[in-house]
Amino acid sequence: MTQKRAAAIVGIHEYPSRDVEGEISPLQVKAESAARALEDAGFSWSDVDAVYDAGEGGGMGGLTIAEYFGLRPNVIDTTSVGGSSYEFHAAHAKRDIAAGKCSVALLTYGSTAHSNARAIGVGGRGGASMHPAENMDAFAGMTLIANYAMVAHRHMHNYGTRSEQLAEISIATRLHAMRNPQAVKAMEDLEFLDIRETTIEDVVSSRMIADPLHLLECCMISDGGGAVVIAAPEIARDCKKSPVWILGSGEATKYPTSGGDITSSAATQSGPQAFGEAGVTPAEMDIAMIYDSFSITVLTLLEDLGFCRKGEGGSWVQGGRLRYDRPLDGPALNTDGGGLSSNHPGMRGIFLLIEAARQLRGESCSQVTDAKLAVAHGNGGMLGSRHSAGTIILGRD
Amino acid sequence: MNEPVRPLPRADEFDTREFWEGTKQHEFRYQQCNQCDEVVFYPRRHCPGCTAGELIWKVSTGKGTVYTYSVVRQSYHPFFRNRVPYAVAWIDLEEGPRILSNVVGVDDPLNDVSIGMAVQVEWEEHENLNIPLFKPLAS
Fold first, then answer.
1. In chain A, what residues touch B90 (CB-CB under 8 Å)?
2. From the CA of A361, how many Å to the nearest CA of chain B?
3. Is residue A234 within a helix (H) or strand (E), and if so which, with residue range?
4. CA–CA separation, A15 vs B25, rounded Å?
5. Residue in A135, A210, A257 nearest the CB of B13
6. Interface pTM, i.e. ipTM
7. What average pLDDT values come out for chain B (139 residues) when binned by 10 residues?
């Protein structure tokens, strides 16, 4: 197997607070996270020669972020495709480093969605924008949660999937969150009721938000952010921490089409690119960092990435397969507690990379013994309509 | 204070204005390519199926089936918050187009909407355009 080691994650930081009480801005979260991640790698600002930015801090992303950080990068990438932007950024950083355009890439994220009291999930969309697709959709009052719920309903209709099966995803991530002090603090700060490990019964008896999705199948809305530093191989080998190699990447989008299958996502296109490039299979993954905006997101993405066949996800996740202690030898899912129970400020793709890197360094609160391979899959936009997919395969030496 | 209103589309949006113009006459318009026969929806100026074709406007019967749906129990939108629970659905029209809309005209959206149910368009009247909602098909 010829596996390229063209670039590695060498620095990470997750901004610890999920409730900044309006005292700090998204840009400030980005800058502080960047500084901590650079220190984690043993770098300073002046080492950075490439920035990747989704524009969530305002100011047209790449146009102003270098100035704010005080950098003069040779590569400026403002790819903005929702929550998966950071998997796209990692893919582009690997590509740009391999092409010799740069050697130290900085990815940052900051959001104060909680402090701003943004009702992301149930806000519905306001006045129609001038994009033609939105101009056709906005009148229906579809909330973001209802969008995902429509995927779940069709999945249930086609394959007999049950809420009790989807609940397995919620209880696995909550188990992992309870082992992560930052996640427990997050749930306290966000005033979760009854902070404890959950059962399937807890999930399916929680309040229905948009049929068939219950409250405990929906992610939190927090503040937060983070940063990731990616470096060229010759630099990565000399960093403070051991390198976490980017072995493969894939990108795709999907959108509603007449007669299309809503239960199948863009991951069917990005997954094979990433696994193919890395020369590995889903069955070899120790860690699955899968964007858990909702339970159905994870189920759909696991199927589409090839962990099991389409429609079989419901039975496949049963029996605790996704737990960090791997009773059924499955991949450990979202060992930081995920968006469901640790951190979701709107675009959680960066945390997928951060926790995957922690696992491959041996630094997770729910450490998988001898973890060697991880997949980080981000989903941006809305799974039940137009969405983006970024798949990254990571491995250690 | 004014009653909150449903978020309405822009009647002058370049790609979709022909569709909304049709709603004034209760016409559900969609497009089909005269070269590759692709059914195009949402409306566009170009054919995404081929580079040579011209899109021809057609009128749907407004009959279709529920492809999938959800019943919204919680919304913070000023118009929709007092209308919960309500059903949002992707509707597959007989001619092919799939449109996001609401299923209305049922006693209980929690129990009376299902995947595969036959529906037909029902127009909600507004000043400059009308909104295509869907109700159970009269048997």
1. 150, 256, 262, 384
2. 42
3. helix A233-236
4. 55
5. A135
6. 0.95
7. 87 95 98 96 94 95 98 95 96 97 97 98 97 93
